[in-house]
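Lecture notes, part 5. Sequence design as translation. It can be helpful to think of inverse folding as translation between two languages: the language of shapes and the language of residues. The source text, in structure tokens, appears below.
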């Protein structure tokens, strides 16, 4: 039994790190294709500086709204789809307008909901205040805030520049904390309402060679539990999503399959399913959400053992991986 658990931990350590390393680099490098905008798109949408305003008009509009920070692709887009299916109107935030507009067009045509897109860098200090100002000015009936944007990468503490380290901390944790605070008045006004923070299984135990990534995700897990308690009387439910590997980019799938074969495939969960499970369980008020049966078992194992042991196992798995390369 002990050997089995040890083996599962090693396999998990390898799979989650490979997936995150492969996948989250995309956030830094921005692997994007330019969208072709039709003249119809352009005339339909009025450009107001750094966001496209589709004239949210809430007079007499009772449809709930969800704001997804990092909602233009990957897990954020999957969450947006799951909400659109439930007739939520959406506000998507990301840096690049081309992917935002592609997401908006798809969601509006398939689900017939209203989608507004805001182009902001969530790592910037002023962003949370500006987004809240926009939402408050339009009196958005905000029912859900999803803090999804985050990044890891091949480089982490000891090999990370100070600028990259600060960017990672600001994006992974500060932006979620700041947006939750600035949007709380609107969420309270529209209660019962929800906050969904996207952490990672990497946040459930320290990973030596993904130190800052796992530390920021651990902070998000802790923040979510504590905020959930703080808001318990205000009817604002706080959930935290902690997925294992998710195939948001082809490179994650290739790398996971190459390293782990069938086990990697069994462990990984498709983005669409992650989005669906995340939204369903958030609406049910669950505190911690780990999509996928195997990932859920692994998350239980990781949390059961002392942090010192799991850190050691993660560390050894990482050393072995590095030697192979
Ligand atoms: N994929 C996995 O295996 C995995 C596993 C566990 C946890 N997670 C977590 O899940 C979240 C999403 O991961 P993903 O794989 O879906 O990522 P992704 O496909 O790269 O999508 C990231 C989203 O966030 C936006 N974004 C990134 N940096 C931003 C910034 N500075 N300001 C505003 N928006 C920004 C991106 O749009 P722009 O680039 O246009 O800004 C995009 O909409 C992350 O927090 C990640 O840590 C992922």
């Amino acid at each position: 039994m002990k050997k089995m658990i040890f083996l599962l931990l090693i396999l998990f350590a390898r799979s989650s790190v490979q997936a995150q390393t492969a996948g989250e680099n995309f956030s830094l490098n921005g692997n994007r294709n330019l969208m072709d905008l039709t003249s119809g798109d352009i005339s339909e949408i009025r450009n107001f500086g750094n966001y496209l305003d589709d004239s949210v008009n809430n007079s007499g509009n009772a449809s709930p709204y969800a704001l997804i920070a990092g909602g233009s692709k990957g897990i954020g887009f999957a969450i947006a789809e799951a909400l659109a299916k439930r007739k939520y109107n959406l506000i998507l935030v990301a840096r690049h307008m081309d992917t935002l507009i592609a997401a908006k067009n798809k969601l509006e045509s398939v689900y017939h909901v209203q989608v507004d897109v805001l182009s902001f860098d969530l790592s910037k200090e002023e962003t949370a205040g500006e987004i809240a100002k926009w939402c408050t000015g339009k009196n958005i009936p905000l029912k859900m805030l999803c803090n999804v944007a985050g990044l890891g990468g091949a480089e982490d503490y000891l090999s990370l520049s100070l600028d990259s380290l600060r960017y990672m901390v600001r994006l992974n944790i500060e932006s979620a904390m700041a947006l939750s605070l600035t949007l709380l008045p609107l969420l309270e006004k529209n209660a019962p309402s929800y906050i969904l923070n996207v952490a990672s299984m990497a946040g459930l135990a320290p990973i030596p060679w993904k130190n800052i990534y796992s530390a920021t995700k651990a902070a998000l897990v802790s923040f979510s539990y504590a905020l959930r308690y703080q808001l318990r009387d205000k009817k604002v439910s706080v959930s935290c999503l902690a997925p294992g590997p998710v195939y948001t980019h082809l490179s994650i799938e290739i790398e996971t399959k190459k390293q782990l074969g069938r086990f990697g495939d069994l462990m990984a969960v498709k983005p669409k399913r992650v989005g669906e499970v995340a939204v369903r369980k958030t609406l049910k008020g669950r505190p911690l959400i780990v999509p996928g049966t195997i990932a859920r078992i692994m998350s239980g194992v990781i949390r059961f053992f002392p942090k010192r042991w799991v850190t050691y196992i993660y560390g050894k798995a990482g050393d072995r991986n590095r030697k192979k390369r």
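The translated text above is only one of many valid answers, since several sequences can fold into similar shapes. The chain has one domain: 2-29+52-324.
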